[in-house]
Recover the amino acids of this structure.
């Protein structure tokens, strides 16, 4: 049958009556491109000059892997890996409970509040219980332990007015 269809493919009489796509289904070849009324068109069962015949069913016409942005997937994976690499491996599970946000800024509890405070004096114990503001050094620790929290350093605005600066106190007030 295979040799018979291959020999019939070259006959022009058979080509007008049967679509080349069906022949390609038997011979497992790609359809040939022939010259149609609009230039070069592939042989298709949907073309008006050819009768309808079933298409090849052994191959999927839709490939979902082509529609996936593999470059973007790889970029997101690399950024996530870099993010996890910078994070501390075993972060403290209750580190978020030691920090709180108030209207005055981020506050934290002083460390060393466990067994070591038995050996402290009374004043040192009271000092350890005191709540302090988060310093710039604590922000680095927070960024490693809690990467989900983004704390930004916001200094008070700089005032360049020479009358307010500390240098004006030493110089004469009427100095221009």
């Amino acid at each position: 049958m295979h040799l018979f269809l291959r020999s019939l493919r070259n006959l022009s009489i058979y080509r007008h009556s049967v679509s080349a796509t069906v022949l390609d289904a038997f011979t497992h070849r790609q359809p040939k491109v022939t010259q149609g009324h609009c230039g070069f068109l592939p042989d298709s069962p949907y073309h008006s000059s050819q009768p309808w015949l079933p298409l090849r069913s052994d191959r999927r016409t839709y490939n979902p892997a082509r529609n996936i942005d593999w470059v973007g997937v790889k970029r997101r994976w690399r950024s996530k890996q870099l993010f996890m690499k910078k994070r501390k491996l075993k972060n403290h599970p209750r580190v978020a409970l030691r920090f709180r946000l108030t209207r005055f800024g981020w506050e934290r509890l002083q460390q060393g509040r466990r067994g070591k405070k038995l050996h402290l004096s009374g004043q040192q114990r009271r000092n350890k219980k005191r709540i302090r503001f988060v310093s710039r050094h604590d922000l680095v620790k927070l960024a490693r332990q809690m990467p989900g929290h983004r704390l930004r350093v916001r200094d008070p605005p700089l005032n360049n007015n020479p009358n307010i600066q500390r240098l004006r106190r030493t110089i004469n007030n009427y100095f221009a």
User: Anything to note?
Assistant: The first strand starts at residue 33 and ends at 36. Residues 1-59 form one domain. The two ends are 108 Å apart (CA to CA).
